[in-house]
Amino acid sequence: MKERVIYVNGEYLAENQAKISIYDSALMFGDMLFEMTRSFNRIQFKLEEHVDRLLTGVQILRMPFHKTRDQIVEICREVQGNNSDAFAADDEHRLMIDMSRGVLDIYGRIEGLHQGPNLIVADFPLRWTVRGMSRFFDEGINAVIPSQRAIPASLLDPKIKNRSRLHYMMANIEVSQVEGDRNWALLLDPDGFIAEGTGDNFFVVRDGTIFTPEGRNVLRGISRAYVMEELAPQLGFEVVATNIEPYDVHTADEAFMTGTPFCMLPVTSLNNVAIGGGVVGPRFLELLSQWSSNVGVDISTQIRQWDQEEGTPKLGGGPSPYEFAPGT
Question: 0.85 cut: is pTM over it?
């Protein structure tokens, strides 16, 4: 199988050769924007929406970057095309788009460093990100509220998808100390309202209506928007964005999380207290089924098949975007 390649500032490099300087603003300040996408049947899903969000961040953070939306989309498609022979037949493509301001000016006289902003696009198998998640479609996630709070928009706007995410890691480390192996962090904002997970958005269902936290202190996820603006209306479900307290989760009929790699996962308990009957709810199943139909991929079955091929990851194997394994 061919070796994967990565786009770095107009060049294609082997995956293990792609680098940025230790003097880059991304390492010095966490000053990096990013997006991560996925494909269905090797067709990228909502790629343009991901790029639009990226470029909104470029504008707000005043990054000196001048490629257009169409140019970035074309680069992403080219990256996937150049890696097509490096993937197994049943793999999906997960693109990682990173953009940084570049080397800080005081280090600019060092010879051999790339000058100006960085655009890096990597492509790796989606199964890496979702490994071990198949059981959650049956058991559901136990959402755990850590002491770590979400950073509010008044301090660092989470609607700008950036790499300054140490608070996510701290939440995952704390939640890893809770007994059990299906615990995911669910952060509150400073006012005590539910905000988001560490890389996912949150929904509850009560009396047939779907509720999700306001977009004030959360990343307004692409999958969140798809559920709210396309999927739920397609099924005739009402979605309301409002303040949600932990009490509202305890009294809900069901709950779920959304995120690009896994699309949707059920949440069947909060702090080990069952939500509804403690089982996967009907609204979740209807939404997941419709999403699968829309994209021509049985989402949960695909992840189950990958887990059967790959095996369940061992705890302690290292942190993931959503968990920090005990002992790591």
Answer: yes
